[in-house]
Structures are given as C-alpha cells and as structure tokens.
What does this fold into?
Amino acid sequence: MIETVSIDTVMRALADPTRRAVFERIVRSPEINVVELTRASGVTQGAVSQHLKSLKVAGLVVERPQGRNVFYRARPEGLAPLFDWLSHYDAFWRGRFGDLRSLLKEIDP
It folds into this structure.
C-alpha cells in the first residue's frame, strides 16, 4: 500500500538548502551511496543521513541496501504533491503570459 505524502512534507523536505543539494545530487545519479553524498556535500555523514531520512519520509528518495552500503535513488513521483499544488496556478500564469504576449505584440508589431 502506497502512503500519500502531504505537500507540507515535500515542501519542508526541500526547504533546507543542504537537503535540497543532497536531493539534487541524488537526482543526477542513477544511484549513489552515503559516502559519495557526504564527500560532495561538505557536511558530516550523520548530517547527510538525517537529510536522507527527511527525503525518504517525504517520498523523494528510496534506498537499496547492498551489503554494508545503502544506495539511494530519486523517486520522481515523490514530487507529485508539489506538481499538483502548482497546477492550481496554471490558469493564473497562463492568462498572465497571454497578456504579456499581447502587450509585447502591441509594443513591437
């Protein structure tokens, strides 16, 4: 059974700049372990582990244990609550961009 994560959980997970950097590093890799994430982050392994825990709770990453290592990969569908929330503003922005396009055509025919 898949548990639905709230938009608040996803936003809270991505609000921290270090956590967001860890997530972006995971997104750019097919799979990555904690040692590699720590090396690239500039923070302690314990801090990276805490950030990973928040990202897992938010449904943004999944882990795969292999021996003594744990590998992480991004879970793009974890961003769905954020996309759903942003889609409510689609009509607003679509109208604004339409108005801008019309204004630009008037200024420079």
Remarks:
- The chain has one domain: 7-107.
- The chain has six helices and three strands.
- The chain has a mean pLDDT of 90.
